[in-house]
Amino acid sequence: MADEPVLIKKYGNRRLYDTSNSRYISLEQLADIIKQGRRVRVVESPGGRDITRQVLAQVILESQARLELLPVELLHLVIRAQGTLEQAPLAAFLEAATGRFLEAGATWARQFAELFGIGGASPVGDTEGQPPADDELRRRLERLVDSLSRWSH
Question: Is the CB of residue 124 less than 8 Å from the CB of residue 130?
Fold first, then answer.
């Protein structure tokens, strides 16, 4: 993942321009950039006003599958909190919850990799180039299930 976000310019004609690849892109192509693990920054052109939130919300709203990820109650809460004293704490809560979710995902990925010997040396010393035996896979899967059940309680 690159540290610098991909700069996207949105023109008055509503077209999006990917400055890193010097080409116009669709909202779906913008979503693909994000799915690849890259961050984006969207600015109005001309003017340079940051409109990243609005454009990312548009990406979500234009895909039924992505929209299904947002619980209706959360959407109600966001609408109710706008312009009230609850807005800042809600934004802080959502940011913190997102951080915790990302940390948990990284932990799960690391544990999965360790259990199944992906991306490095196997924790149980499988011989190089040979897949682990069925019993070893079963033990690793049991450890994963145990680890996940402890995390969920």
Answer: no
Q: Which of 45-59, 103-117, 124-138 comes out lowest in average pLDDT?
A: 124-138
Query: Residue 50 forms beta bridges with which residues?
Result: 43
Residue 34 lies in a domain: yes
Residue 148 belongs to a domain = yes
**What sign has the CA pseudo-torsion 63, 45, 33, 87?**
negative
What's the confidence (pLDDT) of residue 127?
46
What is the extent of the structural domain holding 95? Answer: 87-152
Answer whether residue 75 is part of any domain.
no
* Count of domains for the chain: 2
7 within 8 A of 19, measured Cβ to Cβ: yes
For residue 82, tell me if it sits in a domain. no
Tokens 């540290």, residue? 3
Question: Tokens 């949105």 appear where?
Answer: 10
- Give the integer Cα–Cα distance in Å for 2 and 41: 13
- In DSSP notation, 67-103 reads HTTS-HHHHHHHHHHTTSTTHHHHHHHHHHHHHHHHH
Q: Across the chain, what does the average pLDDT equal?
A: 83
CA distance 116 to 132: 9
Is residue 51 classed as helix, strand or coil in its secondary structure? coil
